[in-house]
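Hi all, posting the design record for the shared folder.

TITLE: backbone redesign
STEP: 1 of 1
STRUCTURE INPUT:
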């Protein structure tokens, strides 16, 4: 949902780095984490990459409204 995406973005880029700074004294690593998650390929792109790597089958299931996806591939 649009609300969940906006909330996740706010948490990832505003709250998580600040918490990382307070708890682990490392705000920069948590900012990097949020940025690297953003650069991760979307579900269909990752599925295509798995198939292009030689897997004969790949599927995914969205979790948490699509914030997380679980991919399963079978090498044949």
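Okay, here is what came back for every position:
SEQUENCE:
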């Amino acid at each position: 949902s649009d609300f969940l995406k906006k909330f996740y973005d706010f948490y990832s880029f505003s709250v998580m780095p600040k918490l990382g700074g307070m708890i682990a004294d490392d705000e920069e690593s948590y900012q990097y984490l949020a940025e690297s998650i953003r650069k991760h390929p979307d579900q269909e792109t990752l599925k295509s990459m798995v198939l292009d790597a030689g897997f004969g089958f790949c599927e995914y299931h969205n979790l948490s409204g699509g914030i997380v996806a679980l991919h399963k591939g079978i090498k044949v």
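COMMENT: The CA atoms of residues 45 and 51 lie 10 Å apart.
Let me know if anyone wants the other runs.
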